[in-house]
Amino acid sequence: MIELENVGYNYGGGELLNAVSVQLAPGSFHFLTGPSGAGKTTLLKLCYGALMPTAGRVRAFNMDVHGLDRDQMAYLRRRVGVVHQDCRFLDHLPVIENIALPLLVSGRELSHEEANLQELLNWVGLSERAHALPPELSGGERQRAALARSVILSPDVIIADEPTGNVDWEMSQRLLQLLVELNRMGKTILVATHDLSLIRAAKNQVQARVLRISNRQLQLAGADL
Amino acid sequence: MTEGRLRKLILGDAQADRVVPPSGFTAQLTLFVSGAMAFLTVFALALSMASGRLADQWAEELARAATLRINAPAEQRAAQTEAALEILRQTPGVATARALTGEEQAALLAPWFGAGVPVGDLPLPQLIEVTGDEGGYDAQGLRLRLQAEVPGAVLDDHTRWRAPLVDAAQALRRLAWVSILLIGGATAAMITLAANAALAANAQVIEVLRLVGALDSYIAQAFIRRFTLRALTGTAAGMAAGMIGVFLMPEASAEGGFLTGLGFQGWGWLAPLLIPPLGALVAFAATTRAATKRLGELS
Questions:
Q1: Which of A214, A219, B28, B66 could tie B130 with a disulfide, CB 3.0–4.6 Å?
Q2: Under 8 Å CB-to-CB from B288, ≥6 apart: which residues?
Q3: Which of A:68-107 have CB within 8 Å of B?
Q4: Looking at residues B15-19, what average pLDDT do you find?
Q5: A178: number of Cβ within 10 Å
């Protein structure tokens, strides 16, 4: 699905990642962890093409991300669902329209997707809040709305950046549950988190691999978690 | 652009339109400026058409009328007049040639000498009024022939004072056209600035749209459609106001001369109707260019 080969990233002031190689196989579940500022978000951005590696190669769906033009990049984003750390909504549109945004921009007929949309809202438990504006939502509701938006186009890969960053334990369990369900449906999942108890909780339900960034390198974390 | 995209641009996509938040103030400025520009264009257009009409009219009227003056001793005057009339009758392009009678010549001079002066006793030259037909005649050829056969004849085809008038009217028409082009350019510049401001103000929205997989063309379209429609509405209103203004001008009259002739005639009234579509076209091109450039710069 997504493959990083000796990837390095240099943000100008210094090297953040060096010689990172990882493969996200279809249907796999990966956690990405590491201290704040270690480069978790950067690594995720490299995976969905928001950043270009300064060394090495990133391949997504067997295409070199470097060679993609702007339109091809847009098509790639439709195949990778992303839950951003800060959710990234259009604040002037109600939740339901934000969730449907990927459908809208990819030219799908919204009237045909009405049932799917309702089902998705039920699944993330936001049916009651469908017509609220994003700033009116709580942290957990925002994260669930962002997750719903990331899966609306039924992507093969879902990348989530600290999806449980702003929510209480119960809500993070619920979000994890949703991600696990997606993984059982065959989706490839990559979640960045610094919440080790979340990872422990996940290990009981799904075969997850844990990647840890330390010293600019990516390591497969052991069973000590 | 495909037919589908064009149709979508015109009919719009209510949902797609909503992805960019409405911007009240810039929208109103765009409307106002394009309206003002259309209003000015109507007047420049009226000026251009009126001065064009005037130039044609003067050129035509003056070209067709000429005066032949015969300065000859009294005893030869009648013979030379007859000879000149004969030549004029033979000249192709001359519709009528008529010697003025003594009374007519006296009437022409009356404003200068008063009615009581017996001008008939003065050694006045004989005047012949010449009117050309549609095609006109060859003034130079006529002059040469008259010189050979009627030595006392002088042809005055009014060129001396006709040329500057026609030139002035044509210069006025050119100025009007330059003004229209400048107004078009200024509109394009204004729309470009407004579109750039809108694109910059909505950088966050554009970023989110890119993140969820929107193509540049989709994002650009939301802006292009807005500015094109605003320019169309603004110019339509400005055009209507301008046309009402021109319509309310006093009727063309002999006393008013050029000034009251400013306006449209006949089919000319349809010309301003081209302003809104052209204004929309200018807005479309300006916004497309601005959006393409701006979006290309974003990551």
A1: B66
A2: B220, B224
A3: 70-71, 74-78, 82, 84, 88-90, 92-93, 97, 101-102, 104-107
A4: 73
A5: 20
Helix (H), strand (E) counts: chain B? 10, 4
3-state SS assignment for residue A213: strand
- Report how far residue B61's alpha carbon sits from residue B47's, in angstroms, rounded to the nearest whole number: 21
**Looking at residue A224, what is its pLDDT?**
46
Domain count, chain B: 2
Same domain, B168 and B78: no
Instruction: Calculate Rg over the CA atoms of chain B.
Output: 32
In 3-state terms chain A splits into helix, strand, coil percentages (rounded to 5) of 40, 25, 35
Can you tell me the distance from the alpha carbon of A143 to that of A162, in angstroms, rounded to the nearest whole number? 9
Decide if A77 and B212 are in contact by the 8 Å CB cutoff. yes
| B185 Ramachandran zone, left/alpha/beta (phi>0; psi -120 to 50) | alpha
B146 shares its domain with B174? no
What ipTM describes this predicted complex? Answer: 0.88
Note whether B212 contacts A: Cβ–Cβ < 8 A: yes
Choose one of B126, B151, B176: the last residue of a domain.
B151
**In which element (H, E) is residue B291 found?**
helix B275-297
Mind listing the pLDDT tens digit for each residue in B130-177?
887 777 778 788 888 888 888 888 888 777 677 788 888 889 889 999
Residues B172, B279, single domain; the answer is yes
Q: What is the pTM of this model?
A: 0.74
Separation in Å, CA of A223 to nearest CA in chain B: 35
| A76 in Cβ contact with A49 (< 8 Å) | yes
Looking up tokens 């997707």 gives A113
Q: Is A153 in the B-facing interface, judged by CB distances under 8 Å?
A: yes
Instruction: Return the minimum-mean-pLDDT range out of A67-76, B99-108, B245-254.
Output: B245-254
Rg (CA), chain A: 17
Q: Print the domain residue range for B190.
A: 3-52+163-297
pLDDT (tens digit per residue) in B223-246: 898 899 999 999 999 999 999 998
Give percent above pLDDT 70 in chain B: 88
Q: Report the alpha-carbon distance of residue A164 to residue A173 in Å, rounded.
A: 9
Last residue of a domain, which of B130, B151, B172? B151
Classify residue B235: in a domain, yes or no: yes
